[in-house]
Amino acid sequence: QFRGFVRQEKRLGDEQRQRELEELRKKNKEQEEKIKDQQRQILQLRMFADATVRTIRQIAKVIPEKAREFWQKIGSNLRKVGGEHYYHMQENEVKEANKGYQAAAQNQRARYNKSQRYRNLDR
User: Fold this and answer.
1) Is the dihedral of CA 41, 42, 44, 49 positive or negative?
2) How many other C-beta atoms lie within 10 A of the C-beta of residue 97?
3) Measured between alpha carbons, how far is 87 from 80 in angstroms, rounded to an integer?
4) pTM above the 0.70 mark?
């Protein structure tokens, strides 16, 4: 009788272990699927980022000479102020760009003063 009981217990234990193993396998499968899904998402994001960078580079290629000129002016102005300059130029280029910048600033000042003159006529 005792032996029968032991055998029955052993069989129950084996069944229990089998069930636990199957549950573990199922969980493993689920996690593998999750990981695969995440990897797929990461890959898609990376591809999207690559495409974005590519389009931005193409756009940057298309930007006309005018924009380059503008950046030159900004760069020369920064160099004049003594900050970092992003665009390396020869000294004469810098002078020319500064001339352009000074003219623009002067123009702006003149326009501002003109608009202020009419605001209070008792000046």
Assistant:
1) positive
2) 23
3) 12
4) no
What angle in degrees, to the nearest 10, is found between the helix axes of 65-81 and 91-119? 90
Q: Could you say which residues of the chain have pLDDT below 70?
A: 62-66, 68, 75-90, 97, 100-101, 117-123
Q: How confident is the model at residue 76, as a pLDDT?
A: 61
Structure letter (DSSP) for residue 122: T
CA distance 74 to 79: 9
**For residue 61, which amino acid is it?**
K
Number of alpha carbons in the 13 Å side-chain half-sphere of residue 30: 6
Q: What residue ranges do the domains of the chain occupy?
A: 1-62, 65-123
Question: Given its phi and psi angles, is residue 82 left (phi above 0), alpha (psi -120 to 50 degrees) or beta?
Answer: left
Which pLDDT does position 18 carry in this prediction? Answer: 93
Is-contact 46 67, C-beta < 8 A?
Answer: no
